[in-house]
Specification:
This protein is of the alpha+beta class. The chain has helices spanning about 50-60, 65-75; strands spanning about 5-10, 15-20, 25-30, 40-45. A four-stranded antiparallel β-sheet has the order 1-2-3-4, with helices on one face.
C-alpha cells in the first residue's frame, strides 16, 4: 500500500497546480487547465514532470520533505 510523502502546491495566477508524492514513486497531479476546466486529477510518474516544474516543486517544498522529494527526482534520471 502506498504511503503519502507530501503535497506540494505550485499554483499561480489563480489556477491550482498541486502534486502529491507517494513512497512508491507515484504522483497525483491536481490542476486547473483554465477557469472553465477545474480540478483535473491524473496519476503521473515523476518522469512526466518537466525540469522547470521540478525546480518549482523543490522551491515550494517544505524543508522536512525536501530530501525525500530530491531523492525521488534523482531516481528518475
Amino acid at each position: 500500500m502506498k504511503v503519502e510523502i507530501c503535497t506540494v502546491d505550485i499554483s499561480k495566477h489563480g489556477l491550482d497546480d498541486q502534486y502529491t508524492f507517494y513512497d512508491d514513486e507515484s504522483v497525483i497531479h491536481i490542476y486547473d487547465r483554465n477557469n472553465y476546466r477545474l480540478d483535473i486529477k491524473e496519476e503521473i510518474t515523476i518522469e512526466d514532470i518537466s525540469d522547470i516544474r521540478k525546480e518549482r516543486i523543490l522551491e515550494a517544498c517544505k524543508p522536512e520533505y525536501l530530501l525525500q522529494i530530491k531523492a525521488l527526482f534523482d531516481k528518475s534520471k
